[in-house]
What we know:
The protein is built from five helices and no strands. The longest helix is centred in the first third of the chain and has 28 residues, at 6-33. Helix content is 73%, strand content 0%. Helix 1 runs parallel beside helix 4 and helix 2 runs antiparallel to helix 4. The model has no long low-confidence stretch (mean pLDDT 95). By secondary structure, it is mainly α. The protein has helices at 6-33, 53-64, 69-81, 87-109, 113-140.
Amino acid sequence: xxxxxxxxxxxxxxxxxxxxxxxxxxxxxxxxxxxxxxxxxxxxxxxxxxxxxxxxxxxxxxxxxxxxxxxxxxxxxxxxxxxxxxxxxxxxxxxxxxxxxxxxxxxxxxxxxxxxxxxxxxxxxxxxxxxxxxxxxxxxxx
Length: 142
């Protein structure tokens, strides 16, 4: 079964992996430049504080892509399986993904927290709507 709602899921999967590459492409050279010893007997999480904040922003964003989207993925899979992966649910899923990509770009470049938070809230509202649609369908459509 292939539902249109799986397309935004696939895009967010890919975006998360792009951020993974961007994170390591900036973090590893920064760690080398800061002469951070990667020996587990010596290394501590405090060593990461030696990295420039712009480098750490990429890692922070990668972590964010593994938080709220963990609810988005199963929501879209459920909607697709239930035959509800089109129309408003599809638009909301695309809205979530587009807003998460914009959130990433803001966070890893200028990192203006009020702007980031506004984008986060809008993406969260998209996810809320998807979750509510699932809830209504599961409990009130027999």
